[in-house]
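Issue 218. Parser rejects a valid record. Input:
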Amino acid sequence: MFKKQSLILLFLSALFLSSGFKPALAVGDGVSVLNSLSASLGIGQDENEILEPDVAFQFGYEFKDNTVTAHWEIQPDHYVYRDKFKFTIKEGEGVTIGNVVYPKGDIKDDEFFGRIEVYHDKIDILIPLNNATDKTVLTKLKITYQGCAEKIGICYPPIHKTIEIKVAPGGAAVAATTTQSNSTDFVSEQDQYEQLLGSGTIWKIIIGFFLGGLALAFTACMYPMIPILSSIIVGQGKKVTTRGAFVMSLVYVESMAITFGLMGLLVSLISGSFNIQAYFQSPVVLIPFTLVFVALAFSMFGFFSLQLPASLQGRLSQLSNNQKGGHLIGVAIMGALSALIIGPCAGPIIIGALALAAKEGDMWLGFLSMFVLGNGLGLPLLIIGTTGGKFLPKAGSWMDIVKYVAGVVLLAIAILMLERVSFIPTVVVMMLWAALFIISGVYLGALEPIKEGAPGWRKLWKGLGVFVIIYGLVVMLGGLTGARNVQDPFHGSAIIGGGSGEGQLKHLTFKQIKSVNDLNAVLAQAKAAGKYVMLDYYADWCTYCKTYEDYVFTDPEVQALLNKYFIVIQADVTDNDEIDQALLAHTGVQAPPAILFYDKNDSKEKRRFRVVGVMDAEQFLERVQLVLK
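Output the parser choked on:
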């Protein structure tokens, strides 16, 4: 009955608003209109009356020692969402928000949001403020919250309150009184970037995410972008100039940055867990693009020439008034595809930006943070592309050698993409790597005799070729005996210690889960057993996930600690289906790798210790020890 009443009220209010009836209603006015309508219809009276927002959630605050104590009196049968609180500095240069201290809430199985934390009755939230200047600053603090009427079955729109306070120089005194141990001061990498984005200070966002993108440029997942850009420039042959190399590099980088920016905007629009890169990691996408890179490589070797039909080239020339425009369109497309396909490793910077964009629904911040990050990531590419164009030989046999090297690198990228296809056996991938090394060694002249009087360069290439062939044989042997890492071809191999392939590595035993219900069931089980829970997100296309599998979760110390205190579970989100997306959204994770820890007492995530991005065994062990404090 209550749901029917709510539907009637919503329908009537929509009808009035669409007809132009009082379009500038405030939240309180809207509730008054709904109450009037329900009264005239004889419904929603007495205990079912919809309370004004300021009556349902009575707000007040105190300010002392640079700390705002925000207080709410919550009416019976009403509650406030824990994760809907937002605190923003609107005015006051140099003033920032410290670590907000929340009370313990109640766990509720919400019809729409699943298992969430809410507050009933009354709550106090401590908001410490820090003033980096040497004078008292007049500050406006915006407080946002949202709640629901449980019995009636409706939820209020977000409520905004702005308070004006004077913040003295220095930090809040509450920081010293609420700290119980060093672990409470710890903030995860993802939360650090969320806090930066949530500060709303544009220059901080630009500098922070640009530097973050610059750091991301030196991670292994981004290395393939260098040969892709280089091959584009080399492909221009004798026509390449420093200016031309710079323009092509700039177009490549900016198209990549815009793609990242659009990802942030899209996530903020849907306000949920969404990783567009995951959709580009399916075999349907990866295999065709692998073939494209193979074709490009063979074109570099001179087996055939790839070019657009003359008619299409003519149209592109007309659009740009010169033939270079057609090339730039192709460069831009390759830059966008590189952002989506080549670089799916989501580090803490990307995850922090996407997580807050989804949480706040702010399109501007979502686009800006990811666009700036893309430019930071692309700066080294811009430098390499421009200087490469300057120093590349313009004519002669050296140009052919450079093109051959670019072709080999393109084949390596094709194999890297195949590694993400789940149904292709590891041994096949390792054999492809071995073949690439051995054939490259043959082309370097490893098997050809050195004629008398041959120059020193000829001897150098032969020696390099022999080395490459030997390494290829090592990769082949490692792949046949269970290894799967071309950079460490005997890791996990039966050759080391005489085991049976990957069984030689003692892997951590995970309990596999799929859905939110699976997670809740494990949390209930762990609480009864008095154990913590560790949730590991995994995907076949996630390079860092495999690093954790082979180098972190095989570490004896890590295994001993986890097996003693934790129930370890894993969610494989390779398919990225609706169930996977629901679980990701429920836990606030954008993409793997991500590792979450849940407390043994209340089954809540210890969010500040969340792991995103890559870690070695020693770093991970330190994180787990912090969780246990």
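Fixed in the parser; the record now loads. The longest helix spans residues 242-270.
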